[in-house]
Amino acid sequence: MNQIANREDFNTNIKILADMSNSTKYKNNDYLLFFSLGERDESLIITITEGFNYLWAKELDFDDFEKIRKDLGFQGTYANFFTLFREAILMTNGSFKIEIHPSNSDLDLTVYYKITKSATLTGVINIGSPMHYEQDKSMFRQFIRKTLIDLQNSKRKEAANLEREVFELKEKLKAAEDKITVLSKNMPNVPQSLPQADEPAQDQKKKKSHGDLINPNLKRRKAVGAKIGGG
Predict the structure, then answer these.
(1) What is the rounded CA–CA span in Å between residue 173 and residue 142?
(2) DSSP alpha helices (H): ranges in 90-214?
(3) Sheet containing 20-26: which strands, arranged edge to edge?
(4) Which residue, 13, 11, 30, 14, is CA-closest to 22?
(5) Considering all CA atoms of the chain, what is the largest pairwise distance in Å, rounded to the nearest integer?
(6) Angle of helix 62-72 relative to helix 78-89, nearest 10 degrees?
(7) Which of 60, 122, 176, 179 could form a disulfide with 64 if both were Cys (CB 3.0 to 4.6 A apart)?
(8) How far apart are CA 52 and CA 228, in angstroms?
(9) Which residue in 173, 12, 164, 148 sits closest to 78, CA to CA?
(10) What burial class does residue 5 get, using C-beta atoms within 10 Å of its C-beta: 0-12 exposed, 13-18 middle, 19+ buried?
C-alpha cells in the first residue's frame, strides 16, 4: 500500500465526504442518503432512510476504510479515494445503488468507482439492520429530525460556498475585463481598411495598330504597281 495513504492522510481528507447527500429509488420507494462526519471528524456516518418507517446508520472509521480499500485493491491516497467515493455518490463520475435483504432488512450500499473509461471498481458497504419506527418511536423521530436538520445545514453551507465561488469568478472576470480595457487603450490605432494595390488605369486608350496584322511592327508600305491608264 502507498505509504502516503496513512491515518494522517485519512484524517486530513475525510472532510471531502462531509455534508454529502443524494437520493435513489429502490422498489419504487425514494431513499435519502446523507453523509456526515463523526464527533471528532475522524469517521464518516452514513445515514439512509425512506423517511417514514426505517432508518439505517453506520459509522466508518480508518480501520473500516482500510478494509474497503484492501477489498478493492485500491493503491492511491485517501485524497484520491475519497474524491472517487464522492463522485460516485454524487453520480458525476460513477454511481451507486442500495439493496435491502428481505430476510433481515440489512442494507448494502454498492458504490461503483469510475477509474477510467473502461475500468470501474465496485465496493460494497454493509450498513446493517435498520431502526424501525415501531421499535422506539421517540428515538426514531429524534434520528429523523437530526438527519433533516443536518441536511438543511449542509445545503446552506453548499449554497454559501456556491455564492462565494460565483463572487470570486465575477471578481476575476471584472479584473480580466479591466486589463483588456487598459491594453486596448494602449494599442496603436489601426486603419479601418487596408490600402488596396494599384489597379491598372482604365482610361488609357489603346494604341491603334497601323501595322500588318501578321507583323504589327512592320510599317505599312505604299502600294506598288503599274498605273493603269495613260497621261
Answers:
(1) 46
(2) 137-186
(3) 20-26, 29-37, 44-49, 54-60, 131-132
(4) 30
(5) 155
(6) 80
(7) 60
(8) 136
(9) 12
(10) buried
What are 42-97's pLDDT values in tens digits? Answer: 999 999 999 888 999 999 999 999 999 999 988 889 999 999 999 999 999 999 99
Which position has the grid cell 433481515? 104
Q: What is the pLDDT of residues 91-106, one digit of tens each?
A: 999 999 999 999 999 9
Which domains are assigned to the chain?
7-158 (2.170.210.10)
Q: Which parts of the chain are beta strand (E)?
A: 20-26, 29-37, 44-49, 54-60, 94-100, 107-114, 120-128, 131-132
Q: Is the pTM for the entire model greater than 0.85?
A: no
Cell matching residue 63: 480501520
**Residue 134 and residue 55 in contact, taking contact as beta carbons nearer than 8 Å:** no
- Interatomic CA distance for residues 231 and 228, integer angstroms: 10
Nearest one of 18, 26, 19 to 109, comparing CA atoms:
26
